C-alpha cells in the first residue's frame, strides 16, 4: 500500500499545477487504470461477464449502442476504491421502458444503509449515482456492496441485480490538499495510476459530460474505459 499512498500524495500537487495553467491546456499524460494490490476483498466470481445484469422493457435501439443489459463501470472483479465519503458510482444502462431502477448500498454486515430510486431514460446512456451528503458516509478501510436493478414489474423488488463493491481508503490529508478534489485530467490520471477507480472514473465522466466537444477529454475517457475492458461503452453518452 506504500506505493499507492505515495501516488496519492502527488494528487494535490498535480491538480494545483493543472489549475495554474490556461483553461485550454490539456495534459499529455495518459489515463490508464493500474489495479491496486490484492487485498482479500470479496469479488464476483464470474469476472467481467458479471458486470452485466438482466434486461427488461428494452427499446428497439438498445442493442445498437451497448450490451442489452445494465453494465457496471468497474474493473474485472467488480471492485474499486475511493477516497470520498460520498462517492459517485457509474452504471451503463440500455434503452429501457422500465422507467426507474433501484440502487442500494450494504455495509459489511449486509445491512442496507442507503437506497434510492433512479429515473431511467428510454435511450442508452451512462448514469451517475452520487451518494448525497445526507446518506451515511463511507468509513475509511471499510468495503461496501452496492446493487442496481431495474423496476420491471411495477415494484421495487430487485430482479437479477448487478452488484459491485466499493472500499473507501485513507488519503494523506496534508499532502493531498484541496486541489485533488478539482475535476482535471491530471487528477483523473493520478487517481487511475494509484488504483483509485471510482474517483478517476467520476472525474473523467464529469469532464466528458460538461465538455463534450473536447477531443482530449474524449480520448482520455476512451483510454480509461479501454484499460479495464469496457471498450464497448466508449461511445455511450453520459446522461443528465
Number of strands: 8
What name does the CATH topology carry?
Answer: Immunoglobulin-like
CATH architecture: Sandwich
Mean pLDDT: 78
Integer count of domains: 1
Number of helices: 6
Strand content: 15-25%
Indicate the low-confidence ranges by residue numbers: 12-28, 44-52, 59-63, 174-179
Query: Nearest-angstrom radius of gyration?
Result: 17 Å
Q: Main beta sheet, described?
A: 5 strands, mixed
Shape, principal axes of CA atoms? globular
**Which sequence of SSEs, written as H and E, runs from N to C?**
HHEEEEEEEEHHHH
Class by alpha and beta content: alpha+beta
The level 1 CATH classification is Mainly Beta
In the sheet with the most strands, the strands line up as 2-8-7-4-5
Helix content: 25-40%
Alpha carbon gap, first and last residue: 36 Å
Characterization of the model:
The protein has helices spanning 2-19, 62-65, 173-176, 185-193, 197-210, 215-226; strands at 71-72, 79-82, 88-93, 100-106, 112-119, 125-130, 142-150, 162-168. It has 240 residues and is α+β, with helices and mostly antiparallel strands. It has one domain (2-12, 44-231): Immunoglobulin-like (Sandwich). Strand 4 (100-106) and strand 5 form a beta hairpin. The relative contact order is 0.24.
Short description:
This protein is α+β, with helices and mostly antiparallel strands and 240 residues long.
Q: What's the topology here?
A:
Blueprint: H1 2-19, H2 62-65, E1 71-72, E2 79-82, E3 88-93, E4 100-106, E5 112-119, E6 125-130, E7 142-150, E8 162-168, H3 173-176, H4 185-193, H5 197-210, H6 215-226
Parallel strand pairs: 2-8
Antiparallel strand pairs: 1-3, 3-6, 4-5, 4-7, 7-8
Amino acid at each position: 500500500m506504500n506505493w499507492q499512498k505515495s501516488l496519492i500524495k502527488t494528487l494535490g500537487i498535480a491538480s494545483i499545477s493543472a489549475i495554474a495553467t490556461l483553461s485550454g491546456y490539456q495534459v499529455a499524460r495518459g489515463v490508464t487504470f493500474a489495479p491496486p494490490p490484492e487485498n482479500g476483498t470479496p469479488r464476483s466470481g464470474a469476472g467481467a461477464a458479471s458486470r452485466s445484469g438482466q434486461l427488461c422493457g428494452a427499446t428497439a435501439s438498445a442493442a445498437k449502442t451497448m450490451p442489452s443489459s445494465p453494465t457496471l463501470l468497474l474493473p474485472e472483479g467488480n471492485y474499486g476504491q475511493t477516497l470520498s465519503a460520498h462517492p459517485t458510482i457509474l452504471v451503463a444502462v440500455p434503452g429501457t421502458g422500465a422507467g426507474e431502477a433501484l440502487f442500494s448500498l450494504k455495509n459489511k454486515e449486509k445491512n442496507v444503509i442507503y437506497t434510492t430510486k433512479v429515473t431511467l431514460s428510454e435511450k442508452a446512456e451512462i448514469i451517475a449515482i452520487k451518494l448525497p451528503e445526507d446518506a451515511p458516509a463511507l468509513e475509511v478501510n471499510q468495503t461496501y456492496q452496492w446493487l442496481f436493478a431495474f423496476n420491471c414489474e411495477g415494484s421495487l423488488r430487485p430482479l437479477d441485480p448487478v452488484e459491485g463493491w466499493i472500499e473507501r481508503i485513507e488519503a494523506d490529508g496534508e499532502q493531498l490538499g484541496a486541489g485533488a478534489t478539482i475535476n482535471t485530467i491530471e487528477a483523473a490520471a493520478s487517481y487511475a495510476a494509484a488504483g483509485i477507480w471510482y474517483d478517476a472514473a467520476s472525474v473523467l465522466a464529469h469532464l466528458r459530460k460538461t465538455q463534450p466537444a473536447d477531443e482530449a477529454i474524449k480520448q482520455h475517457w476512451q483510454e480509461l474505459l479501454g484499460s479495464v475492458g469496457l471498450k464497448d461503452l466508449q461511445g455511450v453518452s453520459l446522461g443528465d
